[in-house]
What we know:
Elements: H1 30-37, H2 44-52, E1 58-60, H3 66-79, E2 85-88, H4 108-122, E3 127-131, H5 144-164, E4 168-173, H6 182-191, E5 199-202, H7 210-224, E6 229-233, E7 258-259, E8 265-267, H8 292-300
Parallel strand pairs: 1-2, 2-3, 3-4, 4-5, 5-6, 6-8
Antiparallel strand pairs: 7-8
Helix pairs in contact: 1-2, 2-8, 3-4, 4-5, 6-7
Amino acid sequence: MVMFLMPVSPAAAASPIDLTSGFYVNPNTLPATWARNNPGDSRAARIQSSIDSKPIARWFGNDSNIGSTVANYTGAADGQDKLPVLVAYNLPGRDACGGHSGGGAGSPAAYRTWISSFAAGIGTKPAVVIIEPDALGDFECMTQTQINERLGMLTYATQMFQQKSPNTYAYLDGGNAGWVAAPTMASRLRSAGVANVRGFAVNVSNFYTTSQSASYANSVVGNLGTGSRFVIDTSRNGNGHNGQWCNPPGRRLGVTAQVGGGAEMLLWVKTPGVSDGNCGIAPNTPAGQFNPDLAIRLIDGT
């Protein structure tokens, strides 16, 4: 008897959500490390309970061994059948307006090498990646040449995740509800290659409520005219936005990471208690440094 085999098409990329059993809790976040190193401090137990024990994204910057660093991190999550959330944060000239978080790769070529290695480090493991917070928000502080250069780097980044990380949901950063008008942001996302990845992220390191953020993001989707999905950073949006962006008082932790909730996912992208810069209620704490008083105030909403 003659058997006829039907041609088999390539398997579609799997959902990293379906491939895992919940979000990965990184045991080595800055607040977790602080709590471990200060067991006698009265704040440690509260920080451990309310922040350390929750799934929080890990931010990755300039690292000559970025491929192995990312491979080890996603491998640790994969070993627990959990979904890690990573932030790629290494664009040359980043934070062009704020300045508190400046730095990044030394050149566009260096960035391309870095982001290619980042994506390859994930490989086929399931992951969520937020691509370059603020990258599409601060064009007013850049020249057109710089903007074009940045759009080229971001497009390359989306292509690397598309090609090298088939089980990753990658999201370009799409600003926040109070920054860039939705039609403008949609145009920038389109120019940055959003069609190559899952979608975009809003409210990263900001304070707008989940409903405000979802309304803005849905408007961006409407202007994109594509099937882009979005995620929302809820790490510090429990009390909404008070008009300040840099270590403002009276903010509160938002709901912890979950699938759904008005977006594809709600995530803690910013690490609660990590300073936005030498400003607000932490004038002596540089950007990226953990301050336990900031953490406690987010727990209490003060």
